[in-house]
Amino acid sequence: MKKRLTLTALLAAALTVSAHAQQPKNVFTVVRPTQWGAQNFNPFAPGDQHLLPTNSAIYESLFYVNTLNGKVTPVLGTKYTWSADNKTLTVSTRPGVKWHDGSAFSARDAAFTFNYLKQYPALDTSAIWKNGLAGARATNDTTLVLTFSKANTTIFPYIAGQMIVPEAIWSKISSPLTETNAKPVGTGPFTFDAYSQQALRVLKNPNYWMKGQPYIDAVVWVSTNSNDAALLKLLKGEADYGYVGQADPVNGYQKKGPNNQFWWPVTGDNYLYFNTTKAPFNDPAFRRAISQAVNTANVAEKAYAGAAKAAHSSGVIPGQQAQWLPAGTASLKYDMAAADAALTKAGYKKNAQGVRLGKDGKPLPTFKILVGAGWTDFITMAQVIGGDLKKIGLNTQIDQQAWSSYAGGLQTGTFDMGISWGWGGGPTPYYLFNQSFGPEYSAPVGKTAPSNLSRYTNPAVTAALTQFQSTSDAATQKKAMATIVKTVMTDMPWLPLTDRSEFSNYSTVRFTGFPTAQNPYNAGTADDTAGARLLYLNVKPK
Q1: Whole domain around residue 53: which residue ranges?
Q2: Last-in-domain residue among 122, 138, 169
Q3: Higher-confidence residue: 17 or 23?
């Protein structure tokens, strides 16, 4: 109890509030491993510019789409339907909702928000209007109609996740890019209370539309300057929740207290990208053979000490495999002998010294594996990969680069092989494959590719992506996804190495209701996300 009193004293000193401010009883404390900046609650500002309660506690979207499984949770929208040609999306909005200033929310606020993005294109960071939105209007107080110039049902998560603002306030703001919105008015479960460089607090919205929720009276965020400092506050009982990365969450956190728990859902993968513009990486047979030579289970074990597992070689995350992988789709099996034989069969023979030769009979060069400088997990992965490839006659060298050179090398296509995360993702595998292999996300070598790092395109994949995007029929989408998965697993423009997870750590000393593997209601997301809103709504005092 003493530790909680100490934290209470800290917060009382840090948060300057009026004499009439509420004194909340049940305070949920979140620790952050980073500092924050100026007081900014602009929901249109990038996430590193506005303060974190903005899009998780103060403003709300129409729906929340769970990135693990695609489940849609109604928020300010209650239901949605696509027209037969998939060019009109009709959304029913929730009646009886009030803005924090007491005025009524309506579909007209939602229509205004989308048109505001058109009026100020720099705010449209999801490129909703560029990707087909042609019109937004409210036909009455509870009906929003969005029309599109082309069928694009995969735009829905971006529509669903757009934070909605009150027309009465934002219609008067003519410089939204620089607006700090110091006194935010949203529809969310909490209202802004106080802020300092050490802590930030929001209070329960007494007029929230969801009756009986939230169960807590306040959320307080406390800033630290590192993962270690944040973890220490969790271990000392000075915080209830933290999005904190650790090398070994079992021994480093869970086993250090009976109430310490963590849930790290897999939301993506780490990949070994092949530069398909360079020989021999432009040969699918070469890429597939060396992929078979890498022991990804060992890569995961060495890099993450069991906290992450080997990825499925399709790149489809575990939560989406049951729905989207074609039946019987097995991950590529590690087999050094088979890889060695496949390379020889493909024309890459060995000389008397065991060195692998190109199809021209000359020894292949030493290939560089690009990683971020000092990134120990990626460096470890490269070491394991290099050791495996050495066994089949290929020499590698780890190329550590600072962020600008690392990202620049990947995006301009000046690397041989490179380790990075998936530059795309969403509630279905479409989003990963589209951003990873769509022609519009590629570029000639030397030019910046937004996310198609391998510079791989295939007519079959491109056609299937278009088919998936153009329909709302689940059976048609599954057929398209089967084509994509089969083609990518045959050509292997990348090698999925290990799973990547969210870092959801929590203590059950004072609260229950956290998301778990059995109840993954918010995909483990935290900080300033629509998923974090569900966390703050569902945790209950003991």
Answers
A1: 22-58+188-265+502-541
A2: 169
A3: 23
Q: Is the pTM of this model over 0.85?
A: yes
Residue carrying the six token digits 């404390």: 29
For the segment 342-378, what is each residue's pLDDT rounded down to a tens digit?
999 999 999 999 999 999 999 999 999 999 999 999 9
Element (H, E) at 148: strand 143-148
**Measured distance CA(94)–CA(63) in Å, rounded:** 11
Residues 6 or more apart whose CB falls under 8 angstroms from that of 394 comprise 290, 356, 364, 367
- Residue length, the chain? 542
Residue of 502, 487, 485, 490 lying closest to 428 (CA atoms): 485
Segments of 405-519 assigned E as strands: 417-421, 494-501, 504-507, 511-512
Give residue-wise pLDDT tens across range 260-292. 999 999 999 999 999 999 999 999 999 999 999
- Measured between alpha carbons, how far is 225 from 265 in angstroms, rounded to an integer? 25
What helix, strand, coil percent values describe the chain, rounded to 5? 30, 20, 45
Mark out the alpha helices in 305-397 (DSSP H runs). Answer: 318-324, 336-345, 376-390
> Distance of CA 73 to CAs 64, 78, 145, 168, Å?
5, 9, 19, 27
Residues facing residue 533 across a β-bridge: none
Position 421 in a domain: yes
Strand order in the sheet with 218-223: 190-195, 199-204, 218-223, 27-32, 241-243, 504-507, 260-263
Does 148 lie in the same domain as 78? Answer: yes
Q: Are residues 530 and 453 in the same domain?
A: no
pLDDT for position 527: 76
